[in-house]
Sequence to fold (79 residues):
Amino acid sequence: MTVAVDSEETIAAAARAGVPEVLIDVNVGSPVRLPGGGRGRLADLARAAGLAVRGVMGYEGHIVGLEDRSRRTEMLGIP
Fold:
């Protein structure tokens, strides 16, 4: 099983649970930036906790519930 992690807390929980490998979750719809190195720092923390980092994942979760297709494509930047 591979689990997505997005914080120090979820990395610690995955390590405690014996999860062997993780993906670093990237919130592609958020302007929020993590202090202290961002997602690369999380990957380093996961490796230090003994977790294998398989890569990154992200999705446009902020637009999933929008029924208006034209609004979704506009928010994705699709002409």
